[in-house]
Amino acid sequence: MLSIRSTLEITTALLLAVPAWAQMSVSEVPQGLTIQGRIIQPDGLPLEDSNVHFNIKVLSPGAEACVLFEENRVVNMTNSKGVINFAIGAGEAGATVVPAGHTLPLHKILKNSGTIAGLASCAGGQTSYAPNAGDSRKVRVTFTVGSETVALSPDFDLRSVPYAMESENAVALEGKKAADFIQASANVTQNRVETLLLPANFDGLLALLNPSASSPTTGSIGIPSSDGTATAPVRDGLMRYDEATQTVQVSIGGTWQNVVTGNTGVGSSNIEDGSVGSADIADNAISGGKILNNAVTTDKLADESVTSDKLMNNSVTNGKIADGAITFNKIANGAISTIKIVDGAVNSAKILDGSIATADLANSAVTTAKIADSNITTAKIADQNVTTAKIADSNITTAKIADQNVTTAKIADGNVTTAKIADANVTTAKIADGNVTDAKIASVSGSKVTGNIPGNAAGFYGALAGDVVGGQSGTTVQRMQGRWVANVNPGVGQVLKWDGGQWVPQTDNNSGGTITSVSVGPGMWGGGSSGGVSIGLNNTGVGAGWYGNGSYVPQFYVDASGRITAVNNVAVNAGYASCGGNLHGRAWISSSGCSSATIAQCVNGSTVTVGTFSTGGSCDGDGDGF
C-alpha cells in the first residue's frame, strides 16, 4: 500500500494582482493550476515508477461535489525522488482533459459568479453549479501504479494566494466593473460618441425623443423645420418633417425632396428576409401589380406564410417568382389551387428540387394549362407525392412530362388510373426503362392499350380457330396436329389410338404371358417384374484357368451354394525311393499272375499292398498274366 508523506502544494497562475491601468487578457498570462508534492512509499523510499497514472479533479465545495474540471496524465517518475510538479489545464504533453459537460476554460470555473450548467457528474445528480460569494474549490488527486490505485484524502482546498485576493480590483475602475461601462467596438468609437453628443446634435436627439421640446436648428441630423425653410441640407441622407407641406423629406443632391408614398412596386431589397408572415398579408392583397418581377424569393417568406386567401386569382405569374424560390415549407397545405396560378406560370426553374409535397396542393389543382411543357422532372417531385387526388382527370399529356422522368419512386402505389391519363399519351420516351411495375398500375382499360400483349392471354377477346376452338371461357380441343379427335367418352384403362381416320379411345394391346416376375437366389444378380429381365452369377473372385500340374495339386473351397469361391495350389512331395520313385498316394500293379494281380500304393514313403484282383484269364505263355 502506497502512502503520501509530504504536503501537496497547489498554486494557480490565473489569479494575478495587476494595477488597474494594466492592459492584460487571459491569453497573455500562464494558464493552469500548478500541483507540487512528493510521494513516499511505505518502505521509506520515494516513488520512482516509470509509468504512474494521475487523475486530477477540480470539484465544487459543497456536498454536491460537481466535477468542474478533470484531467488524466501519465508521468514517468524515474529519478524524480518522488517529486511531482505539473500544471493541470495547461495542455502539457501526456495530459488528457476529460469532458465535464461544459466548454468553459479553466479560469472561468474559478469565478464565483453566474452558473456553470451542463455538468456531467455531480454527487447529488445535479447538472449545474451556482457558486456563492467566497466559495473555494476542492482538488481531488488519485494516482495508479500497476494495479493499485491510491486516492489522496481528504480533498485539498483550492484558495487564493495573498496577492491574488487583490487581483479582484484589477478588473474594476473605482469599484465599477466592465458591465458598468459602454464597450468600444467597430461601431462604437470615441469619435462617434463625441460627434453624437455635440450640442446641436444632442438637441436634435432630445427633440426626437420628446415631441414637446422646442425645435432644434434646421437640418440638424435630419430634425424637421416647422416653417418649411428652403435652407439647403449640409449633406445627403438627412430627413425632416415639413409642417408647411406636411410631408417627410430627405436630402438628396443638396436639396430636400419629398418621400413619395403610394402604389409603388416593392422589390426584393425592400423586404427583410423572413419578415413576411401569413398575418402580415391581408386576404386577396397579393396581386400581380403589387410585386416586382423576381421580388419573391425563398428568404423573403416566412414558413407556411402563403395561403390560398392571400393570393388574388391569377396573380402568380412566371415573372413574379425568382428561380428556385418556391419550397414546400413556404406554402401552407392546400394553398395552391388552379384559380391562383396564371396559365403556364409554373416551370422547372421556379421550383426547388423535391419541394412539392402532396399536402401543399389542393385537390385537382394541377391542370394541363398550369404547367409549362416538359417542366415536370423527377427532381421536382418528392418521392410518393403524386396521388390520384392531386391531378385533374385527363390532364397529364405527353408534352407536360420531360422524357425519362416518370419513375417508380415518383408515383404512389395504385394511383395511375385510366381517368388520369389522356388517351394515347403514355409513350415509350416518357417512361424510364423498368419503371412500370404491377404496384404502380391500378387498372388498364382496353382503350389505353394498343397492339399485342406477348406472353399473357388473360385479356383476349373473340373466338379461337384451329385445333383449339371457342371463346375464352369455353375452349375445346377438337384436333391434334390437324387430325380429328373422336367425340366419345373413354373407358377405364383405354388409350387414344389412330384408326386411320381419327384418334379414338381404345383398350391397350396385351399379348399375354404367365411370368410376372423373376427372382434370384443367393450368389446371383438381376431379376425384376417388368421390361427386359437379366440374371447371372455373382463374381466369386476365382480366376478362370487350369489348376494343378506335376508339382502342385489344386485345393478348392466350396460354399453352401455349391460355388467354388477359393482355389489354392498345394505343392506335392518328390517321389519316394522306397516306393520305386512313386509319389505319395500313387497306386500301381506291383505284381500279377495268370489269374490275378496285386495293387500297391505309396503311403508316406512306404509301399502298401492295397489288394489283389482276378484277371479273369489264363497265362498265354508270355508271363504277364494276360
TrEMBL record:
<protein>
    <recommendedName>
        <fullName>Cell wall surface anchor family protein</fullName>
    </recommendedName>
</protein>
